[in-house]
Amino acid sequence: MAAATHLPLPSLLHSSRRLALNPRNLSSIGSFSICLRFPPSRPPLRHPIFSSGCARAAYVTAPASDPDSIDKGSNLELLEQPTVSPPPAAISWGIIWPLLARHKVRIAISMISLVGCTSCTLAMPLFSGKFFEILVGRRPEPLWTLLSKIAVLYVLEPIFTVIFVINLTTMWEKVMASLRGQIFRRILIQKVEFFDRFKVGELTGLLTSDLGSLKDVVSENVSRDRGLRALSEVIGTICILFSLSIQLAPLLGLLMLSVSILAAVYKRSTIPVFKSHGMTQARISDFASETFSAIRTVRSFVGEKKQISLFEKLVIAYENSGRRLGTLKSANESVTRIVIYISLLALYCLGGSKVKAGELSIGIMASFIGYTFTLTFAVQGGINTLGDLRGTFAAVERINSVISASEIDESLAFGLDKELEHSDIGLIHKDIYSEKIPVLNSHYMSALRSSSNGCSLAWSGDICLEDIYFSYPLRSDVAVLNGLNLTLKCGKVTALVGSSGAGKSTIVQLLARFYEPTRGRITVAGEDLRIFDKRDWARAVALVNQEPVLFSVSVGENIAYGLPDDNVSKEDIIEAAKAANAHEFIISLPQGYDTPVGERGGLLSGGQRQRIAIARAILKNAPILILDEATSALDAVSERLVQEALNHLMKGRTTLVIAHRLSTVQNADQIAVCADGRVAELGTHSELLTRGGQYASLVGTQRLAFE
Ligand SMILES: Nc1ncnc2c1ncn2[C@@H]1O[C@H](COP(=O)(O)OP(=O)(O)OP(=O)(O)O)[C@@H](O)[C@H]1O
């Protein structure tokens, strides 16, 4: 093992494919499926990333002197990698510390100014005591000398405070901006099933309210009676009190102890109320965003009353939990006050009697009263900060439970990392998590990079789906594809038909690599897709759906999104729009190409949206084109315009068409009938009609709808 070396994955793939995966060689080593049926105790004779379930866990060893030994079949050893540890929590001290460490100077200035302003604050009661002693003639110092010292304190304290607040908040805002950017990036690189699992509202809530709570824990706790200042005042006051009078200090200690115990009891008793308050708030936000985004459905079903009544229930639940929280807060407030008053009364009695007996100076007694108030406010402020911290911990826990439970799509993340490194994006330039993800993964991912480029291969080679098995991760017990085999011939049109739920759109999702097959492989010109990182592969596939999604920017910017990394010229945008039959309607819009399309393109008609999506795909100029019911939602006029645009787009590209209309399907070079997760029939329109099988019956029963 020690002498072993890591072979570059492409060469391994090449070799192992020759040994086991190339269909032409299957006869010599047994069928491809034999590879998949190796007993679990023995790894299959191919790179385990190509079998399901161990996608990240493998590398290859062979003698360093003979990298070609794989070809010769000697010394080939495939070793299972130890299980890769799960991705680190999205927010932890280990993540925040490096971000804080970038602002050492600001932190140092904040701490120095904190000491400065706290010292000023804590010196004030001492000066008050001296002031009274001068007034009653117990101190020889001239009054104006003392007053000028007090004036210096009054000037210094706000100066130190400003320096403290500005530095601390600036530093924290910068840390939070990095963290927010990183978490957005971390969400964006999750596997697609992550987005199946969590609602959009939940994910946006992490970035807004939950991260907002983490931000507030510093930015809302910089005032005199909160956070670090409160803490430093508590510590400072106790030290001063003990140095002033060893007899009276324990009394104030008792006061603090009582208040702290009350705070702890309050904290425990309010945790469930606090949690349920937060959850009801999240439900309100989810419900409102769902209602507003489905406003047309609500309108068409006259659902306003129902939505209002459901919303009312949520609002009442929120109100109730808010009231319970308020009651607990007020109870705590009054009990805390009672404790403070009792302690003050005790101080007056004990301190007063000591002053009368001449055991304590009136100045110290006056200082003590001042410190009692300082201590009271500081302790209360500390408790409030604890309350904020409690909410913040709950928010951090929510963020971590959502993001850590999921898996990063490493083949996407790796490519993105590389691209960001060379981009001008500064804030989210380096993934703070990548350092935490085991080095092995990046070694593994760099091995994934093939010398060949997926996009150029797709211009010249067929796409083969070989023995594909697939279940959606969230419904792993339901087999959607069961050993599907299909070849999309290069530059030709393949139509996919079949009953609803037969798995047509699932094939599209696999071709686009939103999901990976559970078993089997997809190849382009004989190369397994998994040797390309996903961002490379994404450039090879243009997808036009029934419901194209536009961003709420201008028409021109939506078309330019076809090449999001490039500076697309206005001429290119116009050319693409013309090819998509969209130019005429675009120039008739109020601001032409600068007209905003509204949220999800809501300010345009279905046909207009579709033609902009086609223009975007034309600009992308990808070798593989997937049309998933691209014209099925359109009226006859729009359909003709869109179909013309699509015909233009399809030229010279490997095209997969899913359609219910016979007219769209019958001219395809081949038609595949999907049933029971397999291709049941394959041929041209006339061949399949002659065969009289499922396609003929689909056409006969008009389930493949005619115009
Ligand atoms: N994200 C998902 N998670 C879990 N199951 C899914 C998901 N998407 C689709 N399915 C299930 O997979 C099966 C195949 O769905 P698919 O959308 O591929 O069918 P289809 O042939 O395209 O149907 P249609 O013609 O109605 O669009 C269905 O049973 C569906 O419920």
TrEMBL record:
The keyword Transmembrane helix applies. GO terms for biological process: oligopeptide export from mitochondrion. The chain crosses the membrane at residues 107-127, 147-170, 234-266, 334-350, 362-383. It is a multi-pass membrane protein. GO terms for cellular component: mitochondrial inner membrane. It comes from the Eukaryota. SUPFAM superfamilies: ABC transporter transmembrane region, P-loop containing nucleoside triphosphate hydrolases. Residues 463-701 form the ABC transporter domain. GO terms for molecular function: ABC-type oligopeptide transporter activity; ATP binding; ATP hydrolysis activity. It is found in: Mitochondrion inner membrane. Keywords: ATP-binding, Membrane, Nucleotide-binding, Transmembrane, Transmembrane helix, Transport. Pfam families: ABC_membrane, ABC_tran. Residues 108-391 form the ABC transmembrane type-1 domain. This is ABC transporter B family member 28. It comes from Dioscorea zingiberensis.
